[in-house]
Write a structure and sequence with these properties.
By secondary structure, the protein is mostly beta strands. It has a single domain, classed as Lipocalin. The protein contains three helices and 18 strands. The chain has a ten-stranded antiparallel beta barrel with strand order 1-7-8-9-10-11-12-16-17-18. A three-stranded antiparallel beta sheet has the order 3-5-6. A hairpin with a 2-residue loop joins strand 8 and strand 9.
């Protein structure tokens, strides 16, 4: 069982700083899993939700640095890093008793527990249920454990965010339209693999509105979709692996104005964000002394959607003839800072 949470830590924390105390949490989570898979999935979802939300919101950013599409066969190749900031309010989650079957709080008056970004807690979890002691014979049991602590990330200086680097190519096609492609081929590092794919379309709709074509700014609409997936092989021969995935769809209206080498821009729209984590395969667990039992696909978590309305403001600066730097900030549930550098040929 401890190995399962080592895998979870290795997979989910891959994108974060090294956290040595991840291993110390395994015994706490082992007891949570023993409370029942339904309760374990609910608890892990609440505990890790800020990770999935931050990564998903980051994917929805960095699609543009101007509202003006390229001319036909014009292009840009841009590398962007997005940092979707985890709010301080997400360092805790509320334990809702009706969501759990076999877990209650030692102190029911304190229902707030730390997520992975939070700190320590003195709260205890009371786990009760039935255990099989022989074929067809069960006994009632009850045990109390300390609720898993967070990793104290909120105490670190500066904002907390899961970085989401992207590489994208935008190509002008017809009728003031850009086709945007994001692609990272499968990268294998030991037992871990990672890949991503996305596509988008940016179109100048000012050209279709009578009288607007002559106005001194650019106005476009954008639709973009991006997905990443990561797989960690636990035991390839046994068909055991962990998988994390996230996707983001964004729909935006963009306005910009070129001023020599400086182009301010803004965007207004909405995000649809989804992320999930699962452990696939059949696993053997220890039950009562001298007994074991098997569980297939023990963890399957769909994190809460964290999309919604968004507003972006930023600017692009031409450094050289074809080289441009852009920085923007998006106000949304997980406010996001994006910094990009690219080659731009109009």
């Amino acid at each position: 069982m401890k190995r399962i949470f080592t895998v979870i830590s290795s997979t989910l924390f891959l994108f974060l700083i090294g956290l040595e105390n991840a291993k110390s949490q395994n015994s706490d989570f082992e007891a949570v899993v023993n409370s029942g898979l339904s309760d374990a999935n609910t608890y892990l979802k609440n505990y890790m939700n800020p990770f999935g939300a931050s990564l998903g919101n980051g994917l929805a950013n960095g699609w543009y640095n101007t509202a003006k599409p390229h001319k036909t066969f014009g292009f840009d190749l841009t590398v962007t890093s997005n940092f979707a900031i985890i709010p301080d309010s997400e360092s805790q989650f509320e334990f809702i008793q009706s969501e759990y079957e076999n877990i209650t709080l030692r102190d029911p008056s304190n229902t707030m527990l730390p997520t992975f970004t939070g700190g320590e807690t003195s709260q205890g979890l009371v786990i009760s249920g039935e255990r099989e002691i022989a074929a067809g014979q069960t006994v009632q049991y009850e045990e109390t454990i300390e609720a898993p602590d967070g990793f104290g990330l909120k105490e670190l200086p500066g904002p907390i965010a899961v970085p989401t680097p992207t590489v994208q190519l935008g190509i002008g096609i017809v009728k003031n339209t850009d086709l945007i492609i994001r692609y990272t081929p499968q990268i294998n590092v030991g037992d871990l693999s990672f890949q991503s794919f996305g596509f988008g379309v940016k179109h100048d709709f000012k050209q279709w509105i009578p009288g607007m074509k002559l106005l001194p700014f650019d106005l476009s609409g954008l639709v973009g979709f991006n997905r990443i997936s990561s797989t960690y092989q636990i035991d390839e021969n046994a068909g055991q692996f962990a998988k994390f995935g996230a996707s983001a769809t964004t729909i935006q209206a963009i306005i910009s104005k070129k001023l020599l080498f400086f182009t301010p821009y803004a965007g207004l729209g909405v995000n649809i964000v989804n992320s999930n984590f699962a452990m696939k395969g059949t696993y053997e667990f220890e039950g009562e002394p001298g007994t074991t039992y098997e569980v297939t696909d023990p963890i399957n978590i769909a994190f809460d959607g964290s999309g919604g309305p968004r507003f972006t403001v930023g600017a692009r600066l031409k450094i050289l003839w074809v080289l441009a730097l852009n920085v923007d900030y998006t106000i949304q549930k997980y406010n996001t800072l994006s910094v990009g550098l690219g080659i731009n040929v109009r």
